[in-house]
DNA sequence: TTGTACGCGTTATCAC
DNA sequence: GTGATAACGCGTACAA
């Protein structure tokens, strides 16, 4: 009986192989499995598996045979099967508003570089500044069994319950850039207060007092911190704060129209502001673009300063004064923290909020021809 | 005996639940499975499975019970298990050289928009213009059971065997931008010949004759086609072609240094070229950057034209004349083709090479102050 | 109408 | 030193 079975096996094997052949003709990609090797060599799958993992209990001879065969058949372990078994996918999910944004594409490069060296796969999704899309992305990534998540929320996100939900269930999450204090986890951000304070002081030192801001929605952490820095600089300089100088962009300037409206409203003010401060990459560039198209002279008629990580700002005319964030490094740190979270055996309870410094790069756009110029820091 | 077993089951169940509790405390993310629902309700997993899929054979009552329980327990199907079973992951892999490049980030947006609406996940990898990295990425994505691949090869890629290997094994692949004629599959590209021809003609019509090119390695499809267009324009205008005016950048200008060297070599030529034509996004911007830092007046001393999809080129000083590619649309088309390939029951044998038109946007950088200006089509 | 058994690819455990 | 078996989560053919 046992012998008969041994005869039956090759028959099945042939069938199997025939099936794969047909599938190949049907253009279906079928990977070589450990089973194929086992059949080819007349071994059991467990032996093959152990040989491949270089287990001590397998004879050198068998190992050699298996390895040779695996090489010949181009065997690649199926990570899907491994994920199912090990309950981990060695992949991390990323949610950002938009990758076509210098800050985020640089951050993703940082994320990827660390993930890559640690053997993790990166799955990137974009919220396009939509809360609903962010929720979908999150559900999608979590259900796809990513081992952890790196998130910078959308401009619409006020409520963090969707993130808390997964975090509470034990999914490792690191927040960066646009963060939330209520979620007990690692966070990576920059000193937004200081960055905005310095930028505003730079303008004030240049003789400007009516400084307008184009900003993201007020509920975002970065908006709050940056506005606070701006206000502090005004207060320290004895300048009254005015709500009318703050223009909010619901969608974070993801479509230029919103920024254009904001800039136009600012230009219609009487008296006009002497400077525009863009509180994020898209907003800065969008504001500059609008001014150029309206042929407003920068910095003569109105100065421009703002957050931006674009490589091209120094080549603009006038060259743009920017606050540059260490985006790549932020991505690196966030990923290191996330992986340590993923790989730690026990739940961690002390979380680090990493606050990095920004760099104020003073160029032409923020310096009035006749104004006193005095660089503040950096 | 059977009865005893029935008693044993709840015991195991309790154990199971206890285990999950512990795991949760250990911060390990454990998803709710169909099994949990089955246990909770005293049903079999298959009944639950069928109820969830709204099978006709399940009573309305049971369905309601199951659905309610699934909702309460926050059940989400495990796509890893599904992938293993269905041998498809509903995800597509993308390989590009760099996402922090306007052309590619726009293309990825196009890819993502189509994939998203069709229920596909997008996994993005970057080759960083390295052939080895591209091979690793490819292996990685293929082994991770992506259902298909969208690829623009690295600047180092001369040999396409690594791609052919998977393609021959039946993995659906669509090539875009930097393509290869030897692989029988769908391709999406632009009319590079025409684009380069028009750009060169534009310069020639502006009175320039010594037109230098900064280009990617000569083995890339886009390089060949663009150089051919350039040469044709020269030939049509009775201008001799000279090798000395063509500067190759092995790494596609991914690091600025390479482009800087190339530009400096061109500037050292005697006589100097009257114009520089950047044959890809990074090269164009890199060349412009180098000229600015060397304080060479553009276009007076040397004109600049080139491929670029950056949003900021119109704001540069001088504003940059560019050839703009329909990147988003290219991504969309590539993805549609790929998904149709993935979902077609039978192997397709007629492949489409989609060739889209580019747009020449004439701005200041390519127009000599005293030159005759004549726009050559859009 | 519901339950049982199997298979997807892999590895750990136990048996020989 | 090697093989058989169970398990991961799910869907489904088959059995009841």
Describe this structure in words.
Two copies of one chain form a homodimer. With 378 residues, chain A is α/β, with parallel strands linked by helices. Chain A folds into three domains: 20-77, lambda repressor-like DNA-binding domains (434 Repressor (Amino-terminal Domain)), CATH 1.10.260.40; 89-189 and 327-357, Response regulator (Rossmann fold), CATH 3.40.50.2300; 192-325 and 360-366, Rossmann fold. The first copy, chain A, is 45% helix and 14% strand. The first copy, chain A, has 13 helices and twelve strands. In chain A, the strands form two sheets. In chain A, strands 2-1-3-4-5-11 form a six-stranded parallel sheet, sandwiched between helices. The longest helix of chain A is centred in the first third of the chain and has 24 residues, at 2-25. The termini of chain A are far apart. The interface between A and B is large, with 62 and 62 residues.
Secondary-structure map with pairings?
Two copies of one chain form a homodimer.
Chain A: H1 2-25, H2 34-41, H3 45-52, H4 60-72, H5 79-86, E1 91-96, H6 102-117, E2 121-126, H7 131-143, E3 148-151, H8 161-168, E4 173-176, E5 187-190, H9 192-205, E6 211-215, H10 221-236, E7 246-248, H11 256-268, E8 275-278, H12 281-293, E9 303-307, E10 321-324, H13 327-343, E11 353-356, E12 359-361
Parallel strand pairs in A: 1-2, 1-3, 3-4, 4-5, 5-11, 6-7, 6-8, 8-9, 9-10
Antiparallel strand pairs in A: 10-12
The first copy, chain A, binds a DNA duplex (16 and 16 nucleotides) through helix 3 and helix 5.
């Amino acid at each position: 009986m046992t012998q008969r079975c041994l005869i039956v096996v090759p028959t099945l094997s042939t069938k199997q192989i025939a099936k794969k052949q047909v599938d190949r003709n049907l253009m279906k990609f079928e990977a070589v499995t450990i089973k194929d090797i086992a059949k080819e060599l007349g071994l059991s799958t467990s032996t093959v598996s152990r040989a491949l993992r270089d287990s001590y209990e397998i004879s050198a001879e068998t190992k050699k045979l298996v390895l040779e065969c695996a090489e010949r058949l181009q065997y690649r372990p199926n990570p899907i099967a491994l994920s199912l078994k090990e309950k981990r996918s060695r992949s991390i999910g990323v949610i950002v508003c938009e990758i076509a944004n210098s800050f985020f594409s640089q951050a993703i490069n940082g994320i990827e570089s660390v993930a890559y060296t640690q053997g993790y796969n990166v799955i990137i999704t974009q919220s396009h500044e939509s809360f609903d899309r962010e929720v979908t992305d999150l559900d999608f990534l979590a259900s796809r069994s990513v081992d952890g998540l790196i998130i910078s929320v959308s401009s619409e996100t006020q409520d963090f319950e969707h993130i808390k939900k997964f975090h509470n269930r034990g999914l490792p999450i690191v927040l960066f850039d646009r963060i939330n204090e209520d979620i007990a986890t690692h966070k990576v951000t920059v000193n937004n207060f200081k960055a905005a304070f310095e930028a505003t002081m730079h303008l004030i030192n240049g003789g400007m007092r009516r400084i307008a801001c184009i900003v993201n929605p007020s509920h975002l952490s970065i908006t709050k911190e940056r506005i606070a820095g701006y206000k502090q600089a005004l207060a320290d300089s004895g300048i009254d704060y005015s709500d009318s100088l703050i223009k909010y962009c619901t969608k974070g300037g993801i479509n230029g129209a919103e920024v254009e409206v904001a800039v136009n409203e600012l230009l219609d003010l009487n008296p006009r502001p002497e400077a525009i401060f863009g509180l994020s990459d898209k907003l800065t560039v969008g504001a500059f673009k609008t001014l150029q198209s309206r042929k407003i002279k920068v910095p003569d008629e109105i100065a421009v300063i703002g957050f931006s990580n674009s490589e091209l700002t120094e080549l603009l005319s006038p060259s743009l004064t920017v606050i540059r964030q260490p985006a790549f490094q932020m991505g690196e740190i966030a990923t290191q923290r996330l992986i340590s979270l993923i790989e730690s055996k026990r739940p961690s309870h002390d979380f680090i909020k990493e606050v990095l410094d920004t760099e104020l790069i003073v160029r032409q756009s923020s310096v009035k021809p006749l104004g006193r110029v005095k660089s503040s820091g950096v």
